[in-house]
Design a protein that fits this description.
The chain contains eight helices and three strands; from the N terminus they run H-H-H-H-H-E-E-E-H-H-H. With 199 residues, the protein is mostly helical. Helix 4 crosses helix 5 and helix 5 packs antiparallel against helix 7. It binds manganese (II) ion.
């Protein structure tokens, strides 16, 4: 059975940017349901379990149900780790290699933010916005529909992923996806991103 990532902070830790109720429902209802459905589907089909990243890479060999739930499980497992509390409301600017890559590939941090905000606006309906590094080292912003993950399409390193499903923000932000996206920058875990760049 695939196992849930333990939330690395408590439900209220990301306030005021993400409220405790949203975090609780997001983790316990949405995330754990993707995980349960994925495990149920494996059992039903009597398939051999493979590492989750391998499953994501080879998802075209599996059913749509498997795709949605494997993606939902994997994407959120990454997402929890990509965020961190910021109770002091400091500016949380990028550090280290992440900062260098942002300046090199987007010009500066504000243009990087703007690009992510534009991509979030462009993503009609449910999906994710991603900052990824291609095998040649160049980084870019893309979006995927539903619970699709970039690795379902091509080889890359995932640096950051942003859940833009309504369930990620609706209780606090209602239809204001852009305000949610703008606030997320306050709680990006740059240390986590820098680890991905090195790996
Ligand atoms: Mn979600």
């Amino acid at each position: 059975m695939y196992k849930a990532v333990i939330l690395p902070y408590n439900y209220s830790a990301l306030e005021p940017f993400i409220d405790a109720e949203t975090m609780n429902i997001h983790y316990n209802k949405h995330y754990l349901t993707y995980l349960k459905n994925l495990n149920d589907e494996f059992k039903k089909q009597n398939q051999r379990l493979i590492p989750i990243k391998r499953l994501i890479y080879t998802i075209d060999n599996y059913s749509q149900i498997m795709r949605n739930n494997a993606g939902g499980f994997y994407n959120h497992s990454l997402f929890w780790k990509m965020l961190k509390p910021n109770k002091m409301n400091n500016s949380n600017l990028p550090t280290g290699e992440a900062k260098k890559l942002i300046n090199r590939d987007f010009g500066n941090y504000d243009l990087f933010k703007k690009k992510i905000e534009e991509q979030s606006k462009k993503r009609f309906g449910s999906g994710w916005v991603w900052w990824i590094m291609m095998p040649n080292g160049k980084t870019k912003i893309i979006d995927t529909p539903y619970q699709d993950n970039p690795l379902m399409y091509f080889d890359c390193t995932i640096l950051f992923g942003l859940d833009v499903w309504e369930h990620a923000y609706y209780l606090k932000y209602q239809a204001d996806r852009l305000q949610y996206v703008s606030n997320i920058f306050k709680i990006i875990n740059w240390d986590y991103i820098n680890e991905q760049i090195k790996s």
